[in-house]
Every structure is written in C-alpha cells, then in structure tokens.
Amino acid sequence: MNTKQKNALWRIIVTLVAVLAVVYFALSIYFLNHFIPGTTINEDNVAFKSVSGVKSLFSDEAENFTINISGRDGKSGTISSSEISLKPVFNGEIEELLSAQKAFSWPIGLFKKTELSTNSVAEFDDIALQTSFDNLGFYDGERAPEDAHLSDYMDGGYQVIAEDEGSTLDKEKTYEALRTACGSLIEEIDLDEEGCYTRPEVFSDDEELNEVAANLNKYVTSRLTYSFGDETEVLDGNTIKDWLSVEGTSVSLDRAKAKEYVDSLARAHDTFGTSRSFKTSKGNTITVTGGNYGWWTDRPSTTDELVEAVMSGKQGEMTPVYFSTAESYGDSDIGDSYVEIDLDNQHVYCYVSGNLVIDTDCVSGKVSTGNYTPDGTYAITYKERDATLVGETYSSPVDYWMPFNGNIGLHDATWRSKFGGSIYINSGSHGCVNLPHSAAATIYDNVHKGEAVIVYGGKQTAPKSESTSSEETTDSEETTEEELQQQQLLQQLLIDQMNAAAAAAASVGQ
C-alpha cells in the first residue's frame, strides 16, 4: 500500500469514528428523556419510551387489567380491574426511574437487561379487592400444615414422616401480595411463590427429629429368640417399642417392662417344683408332686442380659440364665436318662437314653420315726467317691455318694444284708436310699450331675417337718464343706422361688 492509499484509509477511519461519536452522543442525549434498550418496568418493556409513553402504556394496561391468581391444590382465579375500580396513578416514580438511569451507558442495554419496578402505578378499592378474592374459594377446604413427625412403629423401625405444608393462607400476607401486584399491574401471581401460606414448624431435615428416630431404631431393630425345645419366643420391635420413652433426643428403656417380659417367659416355661405326669417302669401313669428338679429362671440376671442385648441392637439367639436346669423342655423335662425310685416296691431303676441299665431293691427312709424319703422329682446334686457320712451316733464310710435332695441321696450300704420288702418301715434309713454295693457302683457310673431322680409312693405314717436342716442327721449326711454349701444353696433357691412365686401371683392379680 502506497502513501496515497494509506492517507485515504486514515481519512475513512477518522470519518467513521466521528460518525460513531456523533451517533453515541446523539443517542445519549436522546436517552436522557427515554429509557435505554433492555429496560423493563414491572416486567413491561419500556425501552426507547419516554415518561409519557410509559404512562400511556400503563394506562392502557390498567384499563384492561386482569390479575391471574394461582395457589395450592390446583386453585386459581382472576380479578378484573372493573371489580376493584382500578385506575392508573402516577406519583413521579416513572420520572425518578428515568432520571436514575445512566443515559451514557445505553450501549450496555444492547447486551444486558435492566429490570426496574415501581411500587404503585395504579390505585384500587382495597375492600373490593379483598371481597373479590374471598369469593374465589381459595379459603375453602383449607388444610392445616402438619409438622414432620415420627411414624408409628413399622417393621424395620421408625421413619421420619415428611411435613405436609397444607393449604392454609395467611390472610394478611395474601392481601398484601395482591395489593402489590395490582398496584404494579402485575398480571400473574402465585401465592405459594409469594410465601402466603402458613408453614409447618418442623421439617423432615430437622436434626433433633432425625436423632430421635436413629436412637429409637437402635433399640427396636433388636430381634431376640429364646428357644424352649420345640417352642420359641421371639422378642422384636413390636414389643420393645412399648418399653421405650423419649426425653428430648434421648431414648431410655424401662427395665421394669423388660423384667415383666422375663417373668412371662419364666411363668410359661419354668418347671421347677411343678407336678409331673410320669409313666412308671411297671406301666402305670402317676402324678409326681414336689421336688427341686426343673427349669428355674434367674430372673434378675436374665433381665440384665436382655436389657444389654436390646441396648446393643443384638439379633440372634438368647438363653435365659438359670438357677436350675432340666434335661429337656416340654411336658416331660426329665428326658430319657433318669433314676426312678419306687418306694412302694422299694425298688430303684436307672435309665440311660431310654434303656434300663439296672434295677435293684433298696431300703428308703425309716417311716416309724418320721424319716421317710420324700416324694418328688429331684436332681443329682453331685457325685462323690469315698465319702464319710456322719450323724450324731455314727460315722459311715461309703464308696458311692449321690445326693439329690439336700442331705438325702443314693449310696451303697454294705452294713445291710437285705434290701427291699418292708424293711424301710421300721428299719429304714434316716432318709437316704440304701443300695447294694454293686448296684450303687453301676448307678454311679451311669448318672450325671443334674440328672432327674423321680421318687414316688411309700408309706408315710408320721408327717415330716417342713424344715430338714434341724432334724436328726440322716445316714446320708456328709458334713464336708461341699455338702454344707449345697445345703445353703438349695435353701436359698427355695426361698427365692417362693418370693418369685409370690411376686408373680401379685402381678396377675391373684
């Protein structure tokens, strides 16, 4: 490009700049009295309009104004300008908006909108507005808001039920929103978006509510199964929920109700000291009453374990804590391994897994002196070899000692030459069951601690004192420390059982 061409190009550029500058300043002066591009007032496009043009626009709108109102539950309605005597009114706000704009910034309006608003370009009859709205039915069938809350217990626990915001309008907020819309000639209004509805106070994301739900679910998710032979007792949230109380966000478990549950298990399944139907070796079915054999729940300890399991949310098998156990559950809890003592016939039978391993004559307690052997179902307390049984007038060593009722037990009696018959009436023991040596050895080898001993029949010509601890020492008393401990344990168990029975009777109104 030569010099002449360059000079021509510069003259063109300078001319264009000058023209653009003239246009810019001319339009800037124009926009001193007109709204710049991209300007809206109350959502109406007022770009390039003067104050009078805007007023004319609003006057036309006011004459044909209809406000469309929508709300919850699908409710909607309209109010026309004629219903509320609406007419335009200008109080200098349009002029103020125009003077506040930056006329020399008009090019920005080509790329960016300027949204302006005025509080009121129209006036109307406020009472008529309220009456017209009241007649639209928005207040009909309103539903009050409901706070978020915990569900009732369901399988799986508790859930947070979300709030229901309802459809109850706050009248003051509603009328104020309508006034603003009509005064600004806004033709569409959503009462929900305007915040005109009353709100719940508690929402589903409430921290305290969710914390309570979580704490409750720690407990009710427990599922504990107690097995009693073929019968099972399942403890789950359906029951546990009634043991819980809430204070603030803390959840506590009522131990007394857990104890009531354990008491119900014990009443249903304990067999300690109960009467039993028993088929004798001779084929007769009899009822055996009394004794210290059977399932006997340690209720306080069982309750402690239950509470701990529920608080940890445990799921699985549970076993009660027992003072005393039996071979099996159910009506026949003695199992098929037991010792049978027929006092009428002075005979002893020993069964192992349903098979008779030995039967033998015996000599039981001396009836004529009131030392008869008590009927009942008992348990072998322990076994001991080479024990010495002592009384006030004797000391008798035995090779096989198997106590089952305090100081009363099975043992060999080598000082006797005869067994069976009616010897026991006038020449019996002080309560024990005397056996031939070989029979005692066989029984000793085939019984175990806790095995059932069923005693029935026999003559009882003199009543036996309820307290055996202070009677004449029987020929089966063995004054070792272990024997004394067994006596004390049995006495305490009997006392506890009587207390528990009294408490159970009181709890069911007996």
Structural notes for this entry:
The protein has helices spanning 3-30, 51-63, 93-100, 126-134, 171-183, 207-220, 237-240, 255-269, 299-311, 423-427, 437-446, 481-507, and strands spanning 39-41, 44-45, 66-70, 76-80, 87-88, 114-116, 122-123, 149-150, 160-161, 188-190, 223-228, 231-235, 244-247, 250-253, 276-279, 285-288, 296-297, 315-318, 322-324, 338-342, 347-352, 355-361, 376-379, 384-390, 395-405, 408-412, 433-435, 452-456. The protein is rod-shaped and about 155 Å long. It is an alpha+beta fold and 510 residues long. The model is unreliable at 462-488 and 497-510 (pLDDT under 50). It contains twelve helices and 28 strands. Helix 8 crosses helix 9. The longest helix is centred in the first third of the chain and has 28 residues, at 3-30. The strands form ten sheets. A five-stranded mixed sheet has the order 22-21-20-28-23, covered by helices on one side.
Q: In terms of topology, how is this protein built?
A:
Blueprint: H1 3-30, E1 39-41, E2 44-45, H2 51-63, E3 66-70, E4 76-80, E5 87-88, H3 93-100, E6 114-116, E7 122-123, H4 126-134, E8 149-150, E9 160-161, H5 171-183, E10 188-190, H6 207-220, E11 223-228, E12 231-235, H7 237-240, E13 244-247, E14 250-253, H8 255-269, E15 276-279, E16 285-288, E17 296-297, H9 299-311, E18 315-318, E19 322-324, E20 338-342, E21 347-352, E22 355-361, E23 376-379, E24 384-390, E25 395-405, E26 408-412, H10 423-427, E27 433-435, H11 437-446, E28 452-456, H12 481-507
Parallel strand pairs: 1-6, 3-10, 11-18, 20-28, 26-27
Antiparallel strand pairs: 1-2, 3-4, 5-7, 8-9, 11-12, 13-14, 15-16, 17-19, 20-21, 21-22, 23-28, 24-25, 25-26
Helix pairs in contact: 8-9
